[in-house]
From TrEMBL, chain A:
This is Proton-translocating NADH-quinone oxidoreductase, chain M. The lineage of its organism: Bacteria, Pseudomonadati, Bacteroidota, Sphingobacteriia, Sphingobacteriales. Keywords: Membrane, Transmembrane, Transmembrane helix. The chain crosses the membrane at residues 6-26, 33-55, 75-98, 110-127, 133-151, 163-182, 207-226, 238-257, 263-287, 299-318, 330-348, 369-390, 402-422, 443-464. Pfam families: Proton_antipo_M. One of its GO terms (cellular component) is endomembrane system. Its main location: membrane. It comes from Sphingobacterium deserti.
From TrEMBL, chain B:
Signal peptide: none annotated. The chain crosses the membrane at residues 25-42, 62-80, 92-110, 116-135, 147-171, 191-213, 225-246, 258-280, 287-308, 314-335, 356-379, 391-411, 432-453. GO terms for molecular function: NADH dehydrogenase (quinone) (non-electrogenic) activity; NADH dehydrogenase (ubiquinone) activity; quinone binding. It is found in: Cell membrane; Endomembrane system; Membrane. It is a multi-pass membrane protein. Its main location: membrane. This is NADH-quinone oxidoreductase subunit N. Its EC number is 7.1.1.-. Keywords: Cell membrane, Membrane, NAD, Quinone, Translocase, Transmembrane, Transmembrane helix, Transport. It catalyses: a quinone + NADH + 5 H(+)(in) = a quinol + NAD(+) + 4 H(+)(out).
């Protein structure tokens, strides 16, 4: 085996090593450059995987070592078509997030936590063994808690404690489900293969289902488990919000696809009406609340609940279009929320406020921002030729196949999304100029670079969504075909 | 047995050193003595596990592994003691001597194979502790704690002894193998035996601090000197569990349907009471006292559903819990020396002043909370797995809710250290001596190592 080019473990190791180095860097200047360099290195190393990846349903670049022999636990990682887009998303967004934090003069500690979180996220996406999955799942939580609570604002301590306890409780229920599954097989194992080939009774599937669902639904979040989300997003530092919304919530959706569907298919089917209703309620409810928001960050936080509601509905629709759309839309949503939160951060930094009422007319002073903002916004709304369109189309197709009424209400996300997003744009960029906005300068340098990259991929994936869809198609089809009842 | 004899001689030797005012030789002598005892224990590792001295003691791997853990933990506590004992009392020789004797009792409890040895071990362990708790003669809290501990301890010993007597009355033997044969062979057990089980259960639950026999724990832990509290909440608690588990796994399994419901209720109460009361505490030391009650609840999982992996799960849990507790109490000693208070507020802003200490304490708290990549998670995983063997899902759900509640108070101190600013009057650093650095560093590294590669511990038993 080649040491670098197809060794998946290296991708996990780089962020950990980088985190260790960064935790000893006291000055801000070297810290950010080291962080950027290592994250770009990670991104560079992920390209060979993308290139040599064969888009069939197999698990590739597999690596497996015995981890805890006495418990029968392996450290088993690999990539398939469902994890590949998320690997690219994670390793692609982390450099952008680091670059977006350049102005903040964070010391090494911040970047160390980001790198450590990257390792946790990647482990979640790579894991072929539920134990490794769980370890990655929790390992991603600790750093984001510290990022949000250390560098956040406002009521950060209370809000993040709620976030931590809430998600930790969900994870523990998943742990019970995993231990239950672990005790089912004749050979005690937590391998994905072993768990998915268990012959579980309907009743035990229901138990397992609730265990998994609580963990994933809290992380995503699906209505009514979303109460931690707006506060946490609002009070987190910009980098933390981007990590949370851009990558971390994908862990939940990924968990639904990778673990919940194949392990408890019967329970998912039998609860699918409830799940769909919850998703659709979440979409409509969050969209309406988003429309009422004055705080820009809160607005995007609620819009995020609406978007992931549709993504989850696509997953539960049990159709390959829905699943494919979910995978594509995970990437799209990651791109657009990172862009939007960054724009909010830029404007907040210049005008000193996140209130929409004190923005107004910014396009006059910031024409370049206005253009990239518009592109990213169109992607978030789902206008044709932007990435969001294809994703939402596929998702709605999947949901439509499930039931026309769900699609009708779920489709409101497009209309309501357009309403609150355009209101957001109008209140911030257009209209009369607010006095605060008269002396602001346009975006330049890093800001322009980050936003242009995001805008570029928004358009690229809008015209060429096959890039992502091709990766995952075979895996999704085989996932749906192989599910045993 | 070499280990126990060594400790007996060591205790007397230390007393003589104190008599001749050789204060500087105390610590090195004690540690060397403990290392010798550790060597003796480990030398039995590969020998046949047969009973010795007419069935009095049994050094199987279970006993040896726990003895080694108890000795190592005591060594770590002694390393912390160097400046500490001198600052609170003049009679340092007595300290070392009593700790050594108490450890000797703990080793007997770990290796007993006869009720006589169990009783003698528990008594040696406890009597030394009664004195240790009250060693600050002029301190009101210390005296109160000692008196409370002594009265309650004497009472529970009575229960234990009464239980032993009744069981002897039914079975006619003190020997564990004999008792097992009695339980397996008789078709109907004498009612005396059942009464004996319940009384012993009460006595042992008192010793491990399980609810509803826990009322002494917070006051005693709070009133005792911090290092004695550390010793009680690690060595003594673990040793009591070792004895508890050995009795129930060797003898009581065939009659489990009789005592399981009782113990199940005790476990649930212990988990919840410890947790919920810990939430309300403003003192870090008292929080640790209540959290130790709820950890006793988790360790009871191994006894509630005894299975093939119970012994290794209780060992894993004990290792994780002991190391994390040592870190927490060592950090408390350092902080209290500086600020004079053991409230959560005295940790404010610690991360700015002492980043390494803050990180180490954070690791300990995460381990106690059971977050992956720390030893505490593996302990919880194995305990939950153990209970799942009996499909006791209700117990697991209660345990999980409790584990989530516990995060609140474990993170409390982390919040104080990292997110609150301390007073600026004391900007100077805390003087951390070398021995503290070694103990804190070692315990933190081991917590992570056992969390990442737990096979080292699990495969032992």
């Amino acid at each position: 085996m080649n040491l670098l080019m197809d060794n998946l473990f290296i991708l996990l190791l780089i962020p950990i090593v980088s985190a260790l180095i960064l935790s000893f860097v006291r000055q801000a200047l070297p810290a950010k450059w080291i962080a950027l360099a290592t994250s770009l290195f990670s991104l560079g190393l992920s390209i060979p995987f993308l290139v040599s990846f064969v888009s069939d349903a197999s698990i590739q670049f597999e690596q497996s070592w015995t981890w805890i022999a006495s418990l029968g636990v392996d450290f088993h990682i690999g990539l398939d078509g469902i994890s590949m887009p998320l690997l690219i998303l994670t390793n692609g967004l982390i450099p952008l997030i680091i670059l977006a934090s350049f102005k903040k003069e964070y010391k090494g500690g911040f970047y160390a936590l980001v790198s450590f979180m990257q390792a946790g996220l990647l482990l979640v996406f790579f894991a072929q063994d539920a134990f490794s999955f769980y370890v990655g799942w929790e390992a991603a939580l600790i750093p984001i808690y510290f990022i949000c609570a250390l560098w956040g604002d406002g009521d950060r301590i209370r809000v993040n404690l709620k976030f931590f306890i809430y998600t930790f409780l969900g994870s523990l229920f998943m742990l019970i489900a995993l231990i239950y599954l672990y005790n089912q097989g004749t050979a005690r194992s937590l391998e994905w293969d072993a768990l998915t080939s268990l012959q579980l009774s309907e009743n035990s599937q229901r138990w397992v289902f609730w265990g998994f669902l609580l963990a994933f639904a809290i992380k995503i979040p699906i209505f009514p488990f979303h109460t931690w989300q707006p506060d946490t997003y609002t009070h987190a530092p910009a980098g933390g919000t981007m990590l949370l919304a851009g990558i971390m919530l994908k862990m939940g959706v990924y968990g639904l696809i990778r673990w919940l569907l194949p392990v408890a298919p019967f329970a998912v089917l039998s609860y699918s009406t409830i799940l769909m209703v919850l998703c659709v309620i979440g979409i409509v409810y969050a969209s309406i609340i988003a429309f009422k928001q004055q705080d820009a960050k809160r607005l995007i936080a609620y819009s995020s609940i609406a978007h992931v509601g549709l993504i989850s509905a696509g997953v539960f629709s049990w159709h390959s279009e829905g699943l494919q759309g979910a995978i594509l839309q995970m990437v799209n949503h990651g791109l657009s929320v990172v862009g939007l939160f960054y724009i909010i951060d830029i404007v907040q930094e210049r005008t000193g406020s996140r209130e929409l009422s004190s923005w107004g007319g910014l396009a006059i002073q910031m024409p370049r921002l206005a253009i990239v903002f518009l592109i990213i916004l169109m992607g978030a709304i789902g206008l044709p030729l932007t990435n969001g369109f294809i994703g939402e189309f596929l998702l709605l197709k999947g949901v439509f196949d499930f039931g026309i009424w769900y699609a009708a209400f779920g489709g409101l996300t497009l209309i309501l999304g357009a309403v609150y997003m355009l209101r957001f744009y109008q209140k911030s960029m257009l209209g009369p100029q607010h006095p605060e906005g008269k002396k602001v300068s346009d975006i330049a340098g890093n800001e322009l670079l980050v936003l242009s990259v995001i805008a570029f991929f928004t358009l690229l994936l809008g015209v060429w969504p096959q890039a992502i869809l091709d990766l995952s198609e075979a895996s999704v089809t085989s996932l749906l075909n192989n599910i045993k009842f | 047995m070499g280990a126990i004899i060594t400790l007996g001689i060591l205790g007397i030797l230390v007393l003589y050193l104190g008599l001749y005012k050789a204060k500087n030789a105390l610590l090195p002598t004690t540690i060397i003595g403990l290392l010798v005892a550790l060597g003796f224990s480990l030398s039995l590792w590969n020998t046949d596990a047969t009973t010795r001295y007419h069935g009095m003691v049994l050094f199987d791997r279970y006993a040896i592994a726990f003895s080694a853990l108890l000795i190592v933990v005591t060594i770590l506590i002694l390393l912390l003691s160097k400046e500490y004992f001198r600052s609170i009392s003049d009679n340092i020789a007595e300290y070392y001597c009593l700790l050594v004797f108490s450890l000797m009792g703990a080793l007997l409890v770990a290796a007993y194979h006869n009720f006589a040895m169990l009783f003698v071990g528990i008594e040696i362990m406890s009597v030394a502790l009664y004195i240790l708790v009250g060693i600050r003669k002029s301190d009101f809290a210390s005296n109160e704690a000692a008196l409370k501990y002594f009265l309650m301890g004497a009472f529970s010993t009575g229960f234990l002894l009464f239980g032993i007597t009744l069981i002897y009355g039914a079975a006619g033997t003190f020997d564990l193998s004999g008792l097992r044969e009695y339980v397996l062979s008789s078709t109907t057990l004498s009612p005396l035996f059942y009464a004996g089980i319940l009384l012993m259960l009460c006595g042992l639950c008192f010793k491990v601090g399980a609810a509803p026999f826990h009322f002494w724990t917070p006051d005693v832990y709070d009133g005792a000197p911090i290092l004695v509290t550390t010793f009680m909440s690690t060595v003594v608690k673990v040793a009591s569990f070792v004895g508890f588990f050995r009795l129930f796994s060797m003898v009581m399994v065939p009659v489990s349907e009789f005592w399981t419901p009782v113990l199940l209720i005790i476990t649930i109460i212990t988990l919840s009471i410890g947790n919920i009361t810990a939430l309300l505490q403003v003192s870090f030391k008292r929080m640790m006292a209540y959290s130790s009650i709820s950890h006793a609840g988790y360790m009871l999982f191994a006894i509630v559903s005894i299975g093939p992996s119970s012994a290794s799960s209780i060992f894993m849990y004990a290792v994780a819990y002991s190391f994390a507790s040592i870190i927490a109490f060592a950090a408390l000693i350092l902080v209290k020396r500086k600020t004079g208070s053991d409230q959560f507020e005295s940790f404010n802003g610690l991360a700015k002043r002492e980043p390494m200490l803050a990180i180490v304490l954070t690791i300990a708290m995460l381990s106690l909370a059971g977050v992956p990549l720390t030893a505490g998670f593996i302990g919880k995983f194995m305990m939950f797995n153990n209970v799942m063997g009996n499909y006791n899902i209700m117990l697991l759900v209660i345990a999980v809710i409790n584990a989530a509640i516990a995060v609140y108070y474990y993170l409390h101190v982390v919040v104080n250290m990292y997110f609150k600013t301390g007073e600026e009057q004391n900007p100077d650093r805390i003087a951390v001596s070398n021995s503290y650095t070694i103990v804190l560093g070692l315990a933190a590294v081991l917590t992570i190592v056992f969390g990442v590669y737990p096979d080292i511990i699990i495969s032992l038993i």
